[in-house]
Automatic annotation (TrEMBL):
Membrane topology type: Single-pass type II membrane protein
PROSITE patterns linked to this entry: SPASE_I_1, SPASE_I_2, SPASE_I_3
Keyword field contains Mitochondrion: no
Name the UniProt record assigns to this protein: Signal peptidase I
Species: Ornithinibacillus halophilus
Name of the top EC class for this enzyme: hydrolase
Location of the protein in the cell: Cell membrane; Membrane
Amino acid sequence: MPEKKDKKEWLEWLKAIAIAVILAFLLRTFVFATSIVEGDSMDPTLQHGERVIFNKIVYIIGEPSRGDIVIIQRPTKNYVKRVIGLPGETVEVRNHILYINGEPYEQRFLTVDSKNYTGNFGPIEIPDGKYFVMGDHRAISKDSRNGLGFITEDEIIGRSEFIIFPFSEISRTK
């Protein structure tokens, strides 16, 4: 009789492990994933080498908002950038000031140095179904101004939520 009990216990353990693996796979595939920040284009908000958790489901039930830090999937590389302009808006940078539809937009997430290195750009109208993104370190960022172009919603695979590594930097992304 003990053999039957041992076998049943092993089957229960295997079932629990299988369920945990399937649940982890589903969460990673459809809800949350991680990404490593490469380069300094999001400095000072995100640093090179930091690992972030991003929310994959948020844009299935909603749309990107101005200020969201998003993960953009391109065939050769993923990018981490900030949403600046929404579909149908006009974006312009003049004398280091960002204008959205002709109105100055306060970029509280930038340092004074970052603001002062934002060169003139635009005005440019964002087509329907597209987004305009920029890195927070404007002087060196490859973004919608200079290489990435407009971003489609299906290229945005998630919103950055938390910095999880290095452990000393654990925090919510802003």
